[in-house]
Design brief:
The chain is of the alpha/beta class. The protein has helices at residues 16-27, 45-48, 80-93, 182-189, 216-224, 226-242, 244-247, 251-268, 272-277, 295-299, 357-360, 394-415, 424-439, 442-445, 467-476, and strands spanning 4-12, 33-37, 100-102, 106-111, 116-120, 125-133, 140-141, 156-158, 172-176, 195-199, 206-207, 290-291, 304-307, 311-315, 318-321, 326-328, 331-334, 338-339, 348-350, 379-381, 420-422, 482-484. The protein has 2 domains: 4-139 and 340-484, FAD/NAD(P)-binding domain (3-Layer(bba) Sandwich); 143-204 and 243-336, FAD/NAD(P)-binding domain (3-Layer(bba) Sandwich), CATH 3.50.50. The protein is built from 15 helices and 22 strands.
Amino acid sequence: MPDQTECDILIVGAGFSGLIMALEARRRGFGKIVILEKADDIGGTWRENTYPGVACDIPSHLYSMARHPNPDWSSAYAGGAEIWAYLRRVARDEGLYELCHFEQTLKSARWDGTRWQVETEKGAEYSTRVLVSALGPLHVPRIPKVAGADSFPGPAFHSAGWDHGVDLAGKRVAVVGTGASAIQFVPQIARQAAHVTVFQRTAPYVMPRADGPIAPWMRTLHQRFPLSRALRRWLIYRMFEARHAVFRGRPRAVHMAMEMWRKTMEKSITDPALRKALTPPYRIGCKRILSSNDWYPALTRDNVTVIPSGVAKIEGDRLIAEDGTETRADVLIWGTGFHVTDAMRRMRISGEGGKSLARLWVRGMQAHLGTALAGFPNLFFMLGPHTGLGHNSVVLMAEAQAEHIGRLLEGMRAKGIAAVAPRAEAQEAFEAEMDARLASSVWQTGGCTSWYQDHSGRNPTLWPGTAGEYRKRMARAGLDQYRPVPVKEGD
């Protein structure tokens, strides 16, 4: 039997939200914190996604921790490597590497009536009072089942597992998908590939963004005068909060967004057939709104072809679209996103009475305030159900959750409470509210299906309000929404 590691708080995942939670717990005086990480370094999605052109779609000064601002961002929208370097710097400066147990993938977690008993894929065992899932919603790549995919003779990989050993120069490249990753890497690979064929099932709305380098004098100003940096962050926050009006269906906001998109697309795309293919058949906001300044120009290159159809089957090096179009390729790249609504169901987590998380969530993901689950004492989720945003930085959501969890743990410590779980009625009321608010939203009525929705068509992914509303709500939520859970005597 391997030695068991005991801790007070076990955090699974060393990405943005895991590091935020560790910092918050330590700030409130909690010790014996362990972070489990499946890879050999911290960073989460910014460690794993290394495809050409990878970058954030939220401005750098807002896509960072409030208590760890970075005055040295080199551009308005940081690239993936710079974001990863920022996270590693924070982890080094704060001593978080000392908390990390690397190359340990969660296998199972079981509430034994007193503590969580955790096992990893390598057989390491942990016993913890509090378990925090900080796995993130975008960590399990999704590759669609296409007939004959195994027959493709050349290199084939998902954007999240980019094969840098494959030289694309002079190659015919097939890209399946036109989501957030594809619109970043397609313009990059089109500069070197002989030809790029993009298979698009549904056109996205792609908006321009005010990107570009941040001048050295501006970075110096932010270093010497922190107030200037804080003002920049606040202005970006207010501007991005205002974008929520598009999702609310405010006529003026929708009209302005549509005009901006239309002018951007038509400025680059002059061919009527291509314009038609790139015009989404749903209301703006129904699917994730993407941002790029080079997506539409890239599609006008002589060596880029857009096939407005999904892939029906693959026969050797031939990809056959659902509309019958055929193309040959040397390299196949899946830009098809991630498992979101079913990712957590893959893990073996059992709560009170052996209740299985996987079975419970077969009917759909749920959690009180997107953070805790009735029947699963002392289990918390970072960026859980109903915490995704379509308009602002999820770092704000993660920080609000971490502060909420920290206050709960402080309150429990002060009152001598060993374990808590959300009151069933509080969770039911929250979920009913989410379903009601989302039912009339553009995400449900805008004429599309998206990765926001689960197999039943329900949207368990997004927060329907502004980031500010969520932060205020989490700041008000306290122990009154939780019930104390008796633990076994003698433990």
